[in-house]
Design goal:
By secondary structure, the chain is mainly α. The protein has ten helices and no strands. It starts with 25 loop residues before the first helix and ends with a helix.
């Protein structure tokens, strides 16, 4: 699950392989994104940002929720892969100036203003494909870190650029805080994930023995995020 909170998005709005035409009225798109965010505390937190940065975060939020819903949804795995592949195509259209989907149309201005990187959007999709491909159980530390990199750190890199921080220090905050938030999210959802046959924080060796350093390393990673903050 992506670390940004969720907002409601219907499956009918997911991109398809056939062209979809939306109204070009940017204000209509902005209002639609606001309505999606209105049920979440994220909406009110982002009110503190200047208008353009706020709208960019709403658009990023909507994208994250869209692909997260695909990965966590009840559709067959093969169909989830199709939906996520469609989003890859939509991101490609976004970066050639021809987005079709209402969310990617809203992202167009954010990409231009804040130099958001295409690879970060694709990394988020990669993370959701890890979720969609199979139930993740007892991953290695390397696999868990890769998941965090894709599902959280990439989101952090996009977010700090929108906030106006493009320095190496900002990148480090995105990396460390992204991992910390994702690990917290995983630990919070242990019971729910167990019901879905997912067990992220349970690295085991081939003999089935839990690595004793595992939770210690998770804690160290989480703690390191606080040292990046002023």
């Amino acid at each position: 699950m992506i670390t940004l909170e969720c907002l409601d998005t219907s499956i009918s709005e997911r991109p398809s392989s056939s062209p979809v035409v939306y109204r070009s009225d940017n204000q209509d798109n902005t209002i639609a994104l606001r309505l999606r965010a209105a049920g979440s505390s994220f909406f009110w937190a982002m009110q503190l940002l200047p208008y353009q940065r706020r709208e960019a975060m709403y658009a990023l939020f909507a994208f994250c929720r869209e692909v997260d819903d695909i990965a966590d949804g009840d559709a067959p795995r093969s169909l989830k892969n199709v939906f996520l592949s469609d989003w890859r195509s939509e991101i490609a259209l976004l970066y050639t100036g021809r987005p079709n989907h209402v969310i990617s149309r809203a992202l167009r201005e954010a990409v231009r203003l804040y130099s958001l990187q295409c690879n970060d959007f694709l990394a988020i999709i990669d993370g959701m494909e890890m979720d969609a491909r199979t139930d993740i159980q007892a991953p290695s530390l390397e696999q868990l870190d890769l998941y965090c990199e894709r599902a959280a750190v990439a989101v952090g890199r996009l977010s700090v650029r929108i906030f106006g921080e493009e320095t190496q220090a900002g990148e480090r905050v995105a990396e460390e805080l992204g991992r910390a938030l994702q690990l917290t999210n995983i630990l919070r959802d242990l019971a729910e994930d167990a019901k879905r046959d997912r067990a992220l924080p349970a690295s085991r060796s081939a003999t089935g023995t839990r690595h004793p350093c595992y939770l210690t390393e998770l804690g160290a990673s989480t703690a390191s995020a606080s040292r990046c903050l002023p």
